[in-house]
């Protein structure tokens, strides 16, 4: 049978073609993330605004096609939000003096993206292509805490995630199993199926033979099992009412976020800081990159684009054939331009997330040594929202944890504080969970993204209305200016958005210049 | 306030003393895993049978106290079940010729323990003390598959774990929420609390405003979201009846094992193979270790113990003051001794798990490149039971996955096969899930623990009866012979069992020799 015959036959077998083709090694010819656009282009100059991941990826891919690029980046560093704070890192918030981090060498935290979902194939593709090693980001940790400050019977107690997960699972399955015993709930279920479901509920909830939830080793031990005559001791579950009244079934705590597609394990991070991805890209585009170049005006002209920018030497004007603008919308909103009114309105209208993080350096990894928490997240109902434990240097000496990572109103209030007061807040609230803060704390560095110059927001946060009515205006070029970045995707807040958007815009721009019909992605990407 | 006053006051505040003491740094003086027994002992010779983790740890800790130890290890390598298979590894199964692994350099799989729970503090303590770096073992992966061979409507389909998890969660919460709408199920719940529970169920299950479970992004996309006009496509959930009829709610699949205390994330492994722990210990006890020394007789004498063993030079007899026997019970059962009848009966009676693994080397990490599976476990209802994907070298070139890891009857049948037939089975069943096996497979190595000379079993598997009636006999020394190993703990199958047992027996032996009262552990260990 020829390859052609085979493919013809396979096409008829819905769902069967893929394994069959794999078996013949046919799918290897076109790796999922090849981006082999046809046609090389010489003598075209593309000006790219912003040296974050989207900007640098655009330049990197365009250079492969023969284009000459200039990336204008306002800061003295590339990478944008893909940024790890380590000794010597500086940040400028709009209402504050410049801040410099003084962490110990080798320690860092990711101020921006800190997690790569395993299905963000393009992010992993670039890690591989750019030789950036990755390691697991341990997003799920049953040993971390829920901490309800001043609420209910479990107020101010460190309750392990595993206790809450297993208690709630137990109570809910018990309720449902009881009900099902009294009659088939679901008309679609046969009696036999209903019995299967009850069996499942018993296993799922860890119920006893009477279908009651009682003490369970799943929620941990009050005394650990060991050698000899030490079987371990299990304590009683929390009462359901106590869990409810302390708010541990509220969204503050009960972490349905863990179920989100993007936050499901396996998750990754770049070894040595997420900005290793940006640094690797930077090496590839170093010749195109102008640091300290702040864009002041964007003009579509009759034959191209003119970009005005200022740097340490003064004002400059630069002409290009096309432009890719990756500036965050709140920043772009303050830059002179001659965009159409639809585009201008969209730029002004689309909201960005208020969000901030603080990194706290401790002289001892007490969360590991005393609390046995290795990575993962403690959830609180207070201003901290979350404490992130580092997913690197396990069993090491010192460490930086993220003392708060908050959003919206909480992030707004935290953002208003001075650096010193943010530190004070993080320590005061954090020591309720970890009294070790008092003796082990060394130094902090905080970033409020909506306050940070050249960002003015965490990421685009679309309302249904904005997605429907404003977003489409930015998907087409305005004259010769294309818009790219996570904000022009359905992957907001993720590095994958920057990569996908860059490729999408590079494909569109290249198609226009070479007068080809190019569809990006070539095939519908599989989820 | 003096330290003494402070402690006096703190003691009265139940639960409040710990944070207060932490705040004063008082708890740091005694780290959780200090094992500082008092009194040094010179001129005492302890013979340790078995150079696995329990035996080597015993020698390591005894040497700190001044004892002279001899470890007799039958194999030409130490470490016992803490063993990683790499190029040149050999194994002897009772009914087969010696087997040698021919994997590529740098690739390995852990034939024995492959996971360290984050709460196995003593295992992590030894990793730290012995400078063995650890990395996350990614036990939970929502992107792996359930694969029901020949069963029901989802038969022979690769169903992502996330699909099943989220579909079942959706259907179960929908059923319970519906029922609760019709009246309060639980007399203990107030109306307000019941409403809270319904709100929780909606969030937990991803139900819509009518409390119905419909399509959900949590279960993944049929077309991934991307840049521009690509919001992604979500497919319909599996029907509950289909999930039931394919057995995906049966224990084969629906992985309540993930909820087990010992299998909850965070989990770890030693970087470079779990046997790095054994190798690090081996360095510490190298002077005491006799490899290739097979014990043939254990005799309690009037003043000590006499151990007979054979090695390449012939038969030997060795006298010691005391003995610690860490040999697995099925092995010990075949060694001459003058133990009491209670001890002999226990040794013969206690069951060991039948279990086996096969490592398959592939020339390409297709599970990552094609299937986007990074670590974790695919569950099947066939002889494979599980496929384990490696938690190291992510994005690397080649890799070894564990093609089956099975137990009991399945392991018994697999164990009976020749090495070639085990490979054939792993490939035939595995290619149903991963057709890439056909083109990418290179070589295999399999270990059947119950067939492996000097082990004859995976780990002690206690019935309630054996735990109650046989186990206690082995917790006391028989004359001057102490018994140690995972089988003498409530941590069966875990390396922590070996460590805990070794310490427990070292403490007991040292107490007897120095006539001290020593309780191990010093305080009840916290769970």
Report what the structure shows.
2 copies of one chain form a homodimer. Chain A is α/β, with parallel strands linked by helices and 527 residues long. Chain A folds into 4 domains: 28 residues, no CATH class; 163 residues, FAD/NAD(P)-binding domain, CATH 3.50.50; 164 residues, Polyamine Oxidase, Chain A, domain 2; 86 residues, Up-down Bundle (de novo design (two linked rop proteins)). Helix content of chain A is 31%, strand content 18%. Chain A has 16 helices and 23 strands. A 5-stranded parallel β-sheet of chain A has the order 12-2-1-16-23, with helices on one face. In chain A, a hairpin with a 4-residue loop joins strand 13 and strand 14. The interface between A and B is large, with 118 and 118 residues.
Strand and helix layout:
The structure is a homodimer of 527-residue chains.
Chain A: H1 3-12, H2 17-23, E1 45-49, H3 53-64, E2 68-72, E3 84-85, E4 90-91, E5 99-100, E6 109-110, E7 116-117, H4 121-129, E8 134-136, E9 145-147, E10 159-160, H5 161-181, H6 191-205, H7 240-245, E11 267-270, H8 275-285, E12 289-290, E13 294-300, E14 305-311, E15 314-320, E16 322-325, H9 329-332, E17 336-337, H10 341-349, E18 355-362, H11 366-369, E19 377-380, E20 386-388, E21 399-407, H12 408-416, H13 419-433, H14 437-440, E22 441-448, H15 464-469, E23 481-483, H16 495-514
Parallel strand pairs in A: 1-2, 1-16, 2-12, 9-19, 13-17, 16-23
Antiparallel strand pairs in A: 3-6, 4-5, 7-11, 8-11, 9-10, 13-14, 14-15, 18-21, 18-22, 19-20
């Amino acid at each position: 049978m020829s390859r052609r015959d085979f493919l013809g036959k396979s096409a008829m077998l819905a769902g069967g073609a893929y394994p069959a083709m794999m078996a013949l090694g046919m799918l290897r010819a076109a790796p999922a993330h090849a981006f082999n656009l046809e046609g090389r282009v010489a003598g075209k100059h593309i000006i790219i605004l912003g040296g974050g991941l989207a900007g640098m990826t655009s330049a990197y891919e365009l250079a492969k096609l023969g284009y000459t690029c200039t990336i204008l980046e306002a800061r003295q560093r590339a990478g944008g939000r893909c940024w790890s704070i380590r000794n010597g890192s500086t940040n400028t918030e709009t209402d504050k003096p410049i801040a410099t981090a003084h962490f110990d060498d080798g320690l860092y935290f990711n101020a921006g993206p800190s997690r790569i979902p395993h299905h963000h194939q393009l992010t992993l593709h670039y890690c591989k292509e750019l030789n950036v090693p990755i390691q697991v980001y341990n997003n799920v940790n049953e040993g971390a805490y829920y901490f309800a400050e001043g609420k209910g019977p479990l107020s101010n107690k460190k309750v392990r995630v595993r206790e809450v997960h297993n208690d709630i699972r137990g109570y809910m399955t018990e309720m449902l199993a009881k009900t099902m015993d009294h009659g088939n709930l679901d008309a679609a279920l046969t009696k036999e199926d209903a019995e299967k479901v009850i069996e499942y509920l018993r296993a799922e909830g860890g119920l006893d033979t009477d279908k009651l939830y009682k003490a369970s080793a799943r929620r941990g031990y009050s005394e650990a099992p060991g050698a000899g005559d030490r079987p371990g001791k299990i304590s009683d579950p929390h009462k359901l009412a106590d869990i409810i009244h302390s708010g541990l079934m509220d969204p503050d705590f009960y972490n349905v976020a863990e179920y989100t597609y993007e936050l499901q394990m396996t998750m990754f991070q770049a070894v040595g800081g997420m900005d290793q991805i940006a640094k690797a890209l930077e090496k590839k585009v170093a010749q195109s990159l102008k640091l300290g170049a702040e864009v002041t005006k964007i003009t579509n002209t009759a034959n191209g684009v003119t970009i005005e920018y200022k740097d340490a030497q003064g004002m400059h004007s630069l002409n290009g054939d096309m432009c890719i603008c990756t500036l965050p919308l709140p920043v772009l909103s303050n830059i002179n331009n001659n965009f159409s009114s639809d585009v201008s309105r969209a730029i002004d209208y689309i909201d960005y997330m208020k969000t901030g993080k603080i990194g706290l350096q401790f002289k001892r990894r007490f969360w590991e040594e005393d609390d046995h928490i290795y990575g993962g997240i403690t959830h609180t109902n207070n201003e901290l929202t979350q404490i992130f434990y580092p997913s690197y240097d396990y069993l090491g000496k010192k460490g930086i944890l993220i003392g708060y990572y908050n959003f919206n109103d909480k992030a707004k209030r935290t953002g208003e504080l001075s650096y010193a007061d943010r530190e004070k807040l993080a320590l005061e609230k954090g020591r309720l969970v970890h009294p070790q803060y008092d003796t082990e704390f060394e130094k902090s560095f905080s970033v409020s993204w909506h306050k940070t110059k050249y960002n003015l927001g965490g990421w685009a946060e679309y309302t249904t209305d904005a997605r429907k009515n404003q977003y489409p205006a930015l998907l087409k070029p305005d004259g010769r200016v294309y818009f790219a970045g996570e904000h022009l995707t359905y992957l907001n807040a993720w590095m994958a958005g920057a990569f996908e958007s860059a490729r999408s815009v590079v494909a569109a721009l290249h198609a226009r210049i070479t007068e080809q019909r190019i569809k990006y992605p070539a095939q519908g990407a599989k989820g």
